[in-house]
Write a structure and sequence with these properties.
The structure is a homodimer of 352-residue chains. Chain A has helices at residues 39-47, 64-72, 84-96, 113-119, 162-171, 225-236, 245-255, 258-281, 303-312, 336-347; strands spanning 26-27, 79-82, 103-106, 124-127, 147-150, 177-180, 201-206, 219-222, 293-296, 315-316, 329-332. The first copy, chain A, is an alpha/beta fold and 352 residues long.
């Protein structure tokens, strides 16, 4: 046995939400969309050219890239496409955060940020949210090697107005500021219009939530053409062909069905608001959310126990045993029927 | 305009073979399979559960991982799956080559190795092939932080016998040795049986060549369970869900059709041998190849000009303007009909 292990990069990996094999459960733990993708995606699946699978897929991620650009009024050169927004964010960390100064992100946020920073040996500083779980922009007005934050934030669901997000971008012109808009379609306003004004801004979005395509792994970024070229150089140095033929074709179909997209998003928003009211009436603390999940606490209940009891009853939600988070659940917004089952369980729920 | 560019990781990316939009060409430039995937892949495509696309794919890359393990007589814990062998190799470089000593690979080889080394800032040394374009195992008997070589080598097609490859693995017990077997199915013998004997051995293979699935992006690695766990930790720190649902399901179907796999590979080998004889009869130098391509030179012709003239005639092959390579073409083995067209062109070809 040799000593090859001394050359191994040791990391503490990200732990994704449970993906149970049981199918009889109510799955509200990974922020998936409760509705299937657009019928146009099914058509694209049926049209897929089987014989072409022997060929490499389009290296420039077309036609998906142009379809996304069209939808958002950009040039294809301002769009980068990756294997889910995690792939896009990983590439962004590798590309733009080569600094000795720490990058900044909230202490309570998407729990992959510190994992990437550790993986790529990027120094980082976690900035505490205030007591109301809000981002304070003035805290980010300090020397840094880059900034990343989700808007709306996860798992809190809190949204920064564009004007507030802009302060953060404006105050760090010497760093790339990544606004992770994975959940922006559920009622938030994108910082996209700021792209013309700030060349240090990069925006990341995904097909996994609002477009019901978590299973296809499609994420994307918007930035200046120069910034996207830097990102592509790193991507082409890592894996030239990341997007397979199915992802390119099904993604293109999904982004072209605007009517279905709006309808699905509106249904989820309506269910979210209805559920929030109902849970508040049951004594839960449910702040406004601009995402497809609710960040729920309770003045008396042991939330860790509630999490286990819900699971026992076949209702999976997300819970973190971490300071400031261990008294909250993150509950994905499912169908009305699923949320009714949740509310019924909570209505009858007692802890001794 | 800020100074954010000073924090950008600058790289010289890998340049993949041209993917022309024209469809009337003979495409022998990226080592794709001339035959479509197994009919079982088409069936899997037709069976794909559209509604499930809203859900994240299996985080453990099942059932593909177990299907590969079964096919090769391993445990699923000895198998790692990624987005093409490029993704697998990139993860391996990041995971196992964390050393101040240089990693070693041939000077003429897969041109992505130095790109990954540059990307991850890994010191490296390129060991010249001998005058006959062969790997000399004794050259690798030197202090190193890791070793990687393709077997058969690309673009030369030269195969090392298992016993010779074993010398390299045995002589560097303190480093991970990666044997990149992207082309092993076209007549080579895998080092797989050595896995029991050497805990520093990692083997990488792909669905892109022998299984006609370049368009699906599926690669995999074999190693000890401990080694695969290290690799997975890094992968889970990068992107938890790399394999989309289509890749998992279509890949599983492909690996289960052993009869079709053997038949396709045998056809390609027969065409390769036939083409080699024919080109030699036309005065070309065509060494034995154990891959799905030929490494072709000529005692008199200007090979760079031949490359351009072939392209002009609609026949795309691969050419590198690099020392020791600029007098060679790498020609992918296509169908018999395609190779006949190539041979006819060469038969009538003259340079003034």
């Amino acid at each position: 046995m040799g000593n090859w292990e001394r050359n191994v990069r040791r990391v503490v990996p990200y732990v994704p939400g449970e993906q149970p094999v049981r199918t009889d459960i109510i799955k509200l733990n990974t922020n998936e969309n409760p509705y299937p993708p657009s019928p146009k995606v099914r058509e694209a699946m049926e049209r897929m050219d089987f014989d072409r699978l022997r060929r490499y897929p389009a290296v420039d991620t077309e036609p998906l890239r142009s379809a996304i650009a069209d939808r958002y009024g950009l040039n294809p050169g301002q769009v980068f496409v990756g294997v889910g927004s995690d792939d896009v964010l990983a590439m962004c960390f590798m590309t733009f955060f080569q600094s000795d100064r720490p990058i900044l992100f909230p202490d309570i946020t998407y729990s992959f940020y510190d994992v990437w920073a550790e993986l790529f040996r990027i120094p980082y500083r976690q900035i505490p949210l205030d007591d109301n779980y809000e981002i304070r922009t003035e805290d980010y007005r300090t020397e840094n090697g880059g900034i990343v934050f989700p808007n709306p934030n996860a798992p809190t669901g809190r949204l920064l107005p564009v004007r507030t997000a802009e302060e953060i971008i404006r105050n760090s012109p010497d760093s790339v500021v990544i606004v992770d808009e994975a959940y922006i379609d559920f009622g938030g306003e994108s910082v996209l219009p700021l792209l013309e004004k700030y060349d240090n801004l990069l925006i990341v979005q995904t097909f996994s939530k609002s477009r019901s395509l978590a299973g296809m792994r499609i994420g994307y970024a918007f930035g200046s053409e120069k910034m996207i070229r830097y990102l592509e150089d790193v991507k082409y140095s890592f894996n030239s062909y990341t997007m397979n033929m199915a992802a390119l074709q099904l993604g293109t179909a999904a982004v072209s069905d605007e009517a279905y997209f709006r309808q699905t998003v509106e249904r989820i928003i309506a269910t979210r608001e209805r559920t929030a009211v109902r849970l508040r009436n049951l004594g839960y603390i449910v702040p406004e959310s601009a995402a497809n999940f609710l960040f729920v606490s309770h003045p008396e209940l042991d939330i860790g126990k509630l999490f286990e009891d819900l699971k026992e009853a076949g209702i999976y939600v997300r819970y973190w045993k971490k300071p400031r988070l261990d008294n909250h659940l993150r509950i994905t917004v499912g169908t009305d029927g699923e949320m009714d089952r949740l509310a019924e369980f909570l209505q009858n729920y007692r802890q001794n």
